[in-house]
Specification:
269 residues, globular, three-stranded antiparallel beta sheet, Jelly Rolls, 12 helices
């Protein structure tokens, strides 16, 4: 089985996103074939093509984007992208899911929000302009650089959520989204990772035996349950480390680690 990596996404201080320019992407993790390794993270990712052509492998689907096009990848989805033209120029924008979820107080919004092409198709041109504006801000040294980038991110998600709210009226649509590629299992973990959940608890919730669910979770997500739960907890802990003045003990507790030692051992590892 091809190696799948977990990518920790840590934006700049006070910034909602992390931007990878095409020149930097060239130097990122690569496999022996010279192509970026399949990976996943708990962030939304926009792959944006300014010029040339980019090939995207998202789960089991392959798609291409060309000049002035983009593709949106939801959190916790295995993917990889690489340029297929010598004149390629583009960038990737990663927004930690936690940064979007924190705006919602309604418990129903605590699950990961998933977006489809239908969400951004009506606003494709406007989102493209916002993404390109964000790209220019990321290259700037102006004092309003971070504010400008954050403004673009909030504007983009305002547009996406406008369409998402309308889709939620259709139960069938939401059921289809929650069942896609094991997302119902990862969504459950993303909602309850702060609790003392174990594999047997989640298996019972979905009506499976522990042994069967362990194999099912790996088959549907490509990740071991314990590894997935630990990385989600660690991502949240890193977010709190960067954005709060909480003690290490409080951060470990709020991130779902049963003991401080469990957090420190994983963090060091």
């Amino acid at each position: 089985m091809e190696l799948i990596e977990y990518e920790q996404v840590i934006p700049e201080i006070n910034c909602f996103c992390k931007v990878f320019h095409s020149q930097l992407i060239e130097k990122e993790k690569k496999s022996p074939t010279g192509r970026p390794l399949p990976h996943w993270h708990s962030s939304y990712e926009f792959n944006v093509c300014i010029n040339g052509r980019l090939e995207n492998h998202i789960e089991n689907e392959v798609s291409y984007i060309e000049s002035e096009e983009f593709v949106l990848i939801n959190p916790n989805v295995v993917h990889t992208s690489y340029e297929v033209s010598e004149d390629y120029l583009g960038f990737a924008v990663l927004i930690p899911e936690e940064y979007i979820r924190m705006y919602f107080e309604n418990p129903d919004k605590k699950q990961v929000l998933l977006f489809t092409k239908q969400n951004y198709a009506p606003h494709k041109e406007e989102i493209w302009r916002l993404l390109y504006k964000l790209y220019l801000y990321s290259l700037s040294t102006a004092s309003n650089r971070i504010i400008g980038m954050n403004s673009c991110i909030l504007s983009i998600f305002t547009l996406l959520l406008t369409e998402n709210e309308e889709e939620e009226e259709s139960a069938d649509t939401m059921d289809a989204l929650s069942l896609k590629s094991g997302s119902q299992y990862t969504d459950y973990v993303n909602v309850h990772y702060r609790e003392n959940i174990q594999l047997k608890d989640v298996a019972s919730h979905f009506g499976f035996t522990t042994a069967y669910f362990s194999k099912l979770f790996y088959r549907e997500t490509g990740r071991n349950f314990k590894f997935y739960l630990s990385t989600i907890r660690l991502s949240h802990a890193v977010f709190l480390l960067k954005s709060t003045d909480l003690s290490i003990t409080e951060i470990a507790d709020r991130s779902g680690f049963p003991k401080l030692r469990a957090f420190t051992d994983l963090f060091l590892k």
